[in-house]
Design goal:
This protein has 14 helices and six strands. By secondary structure, the protein is α+β, with helices and mostly antiparallel strands. Strands 1, 2, 3, 4, 5 and 6 form a six-stranded mixed β-sheet that branches. α1 crosses α2, α9 runs parallel beside α11 and α11 crosses α14. The longest helix has 41 residues. The radius of gyration is 30 Å and the shape is elongated. The protein starts with a helix and ends with a helix.
């Protein structure tokens, strides 16, 4: 490197140090904006990481190719964003959003997957060199980043695992390692690519199952048997269950149903002879007033989760049956830690008696 190039490099480094705060702000602004865009599109992602290039890394990069980097404007990755999605089909969706929302330097951007031959396996990722588009630059919060660009990488979590391990092993030049090692890398890359596709297939199958289950329950609930596989979807989509849950849980925090609650509900259904969703809907509609009274007297054994109203419905149904043996077994089986069961049940029976009589008179 000659004296003039050294002076130019030193000038670039001084400029970068003085502007570093601006690049840091740009990185954080991009991270927030991308999070909002992906959330709005319903794309779930593992992480969004923002960084600005440290001074030493910049110095080494420019020093290696001084004729290529004449100014900071020639260095496109001073700001870097890495988006890691759970599924590889979301990589394309995220890429589409970025193409629509930012100005893209097509000459500097690349889809790594297109560089592989059909017989090759390896690193798959989308790299964009992007800047704010004119619409955003017209806004005061983005206007000061007019001359800033960023490298935005998008990859699936398995692609990310491949890239991180490859980097950790120092696998930069395939020609510099033995053929057997290259074959091992190729096998692993192929397995990861298959796994990536299979996870997408599983996601699609689960979505199809959910949609089909909801459709069947809506069309003919008395023909659909309750299972641990479909109960969670019913709880999420049933307005009857959601309304009862909201009446029972005063907290604004309502957690999703979990396997523990689902399995316990399935056991309760078998005990109270509820087998189909039609029977469950009928029970909730008939006994929800009693379930609410039970919730007022009985402590909640679960965290406030979706579907908790069904547990109280099963309790109300059991107590309304007025069978001492069934009531005793219900509480010993599902509430073994509860003390003073007889007193509590007696209090509940007193509270629900008018409602029970009213239901019987209607019948």
């Amino acid at each position: 490197m000659n004296t003039l190039q050294t002076q130019d490099l030193n000038g670039m480094m001084l400029e970068y140090v003085s502007e570093k705060e601006s690049y840091d702000a740009f990185a954080q602004k991009l991270k927030v904006l991308l999070s909002e865009l992906l959330d709005a599109a319903g794309i779930k992602y593992h992480s969004i990481v923002a960084r600005t290039k440290d001074s030493e890394s910049l110095y080494q990069k420019v020093a290696r190719q001084p004729n290529k980097y004449r100014s900071l404007a020639d260095v496109h990755d001073l700001t870097g964003i890495r988006i890691v999605t759970y599924f590889h089909d979301d990589v394309k969706e995220a890429a589409r959003i970025i193409e629509n929302e930012f100005s893209i330097d097509r000459d500097q951007s690349v889809d790594k997957s297109t560089l592989l031959d059909t017989t090759e396996f390896g690193y798959l990722s989308v790299h964009f060199i992007a800047s704010m588009n004119e619409q955003r630059l017209a806004l005061s919060e983005y206007g000061r980043f007019k001359d800033h660009t960023a490298e935005i990488q998008i990859r699936s979590i398995l692609q990310h695992a491949w890239a991180e391990i490859e980097h950790d092993l120092g696998y930069k030049n395939p020609n510099s390692v033995p053929a057997e090692v290259r074959r091992s890398f190729s096998r692993v890359a192929g397995l990861l690519e298959i796994a990536d596709q299979e996870f997408v297939n599983i996601k699609r199958q689960l979505k199809q199952f959910e949609e089909e289950t909801v459709r069947q329950i809506l069309e003919d609930p008395h023909q659909v048997r309750i299972t641990s596989d479909n109960l969670n979807y019913f709880i999420d989509h049933s307005p009857v269950i959601n309304q009862l849950d909201k009446q029972l849980v005063t907290s604004h925090l309502m957690l999703d149903s979990d396997p523990q609650l689902i399995n316990e509900l399935i056991r309760m259904f078998h005990y109270v002879d509820i087998r189909t969703y039609g029977e469950l809907i009928d029970a909730v509609e008939l006994h929800s007033p009693l379930a609410i009274q039970c919730a007022k007297v009985m402590p909640n054994p679960f965290l406030p989760r979706q579907g908790i109203g069904i547990a109280y419905t099963c309790m109300a149904l059991t107590i309304a049956g007025n069978d001492e043996h069934r009531i005793d077994y219900f509480f010993r089986r599902f509430y073994p830690e509860l003390r003073n069961v007889k007193e509590i049940v007696g209090q509940l029976q007193t509270m629900i008696q008018p409602a029970t009589l009213q239901e019987k008179n209607i019948d």
